[in-house]
Amino acid sequence: MTMLLTIALVLFVLWALGVFAFKITAGVIHLVLVVALVVGLVQLFRGRRA
To answer: How many other CB atoms sit within 10 Å of the CB of residue 38?
Structure first.
C-alpha cells in the first residue's frame, strides 16, 4: 500500500507542475493521473491482497 501512495504522490506533484508550469504537458499528466486513479480503484474493489 505504501508503494501505491508513493506513486500517487509523485503523480500529484507532476500534475501540479503540469498545471502551473508546463501548460503543454498538462493534458498528458492529467491522462496519466486519471489512469492511475482508475487502476487504484479497480485494485481497491477487487480486494486484492498482498
So the answer is: 10
What cell does 26 get?
A: 498538462
CB of 18 closer than 8 Å to CB of 29: yes
Read off the amino acid at residue 50.
A
Cα 19 from Cα 4, distance rounded (Å) = 22
Type of residue found at 2: T
Give the total residue count for the chain. 50
What pTM, to 2 d.p., does this model score?
0.48
Mean pLDDT, the chain cut into blocks of 10 residues (50 residues total) = 81 79 70 85 76
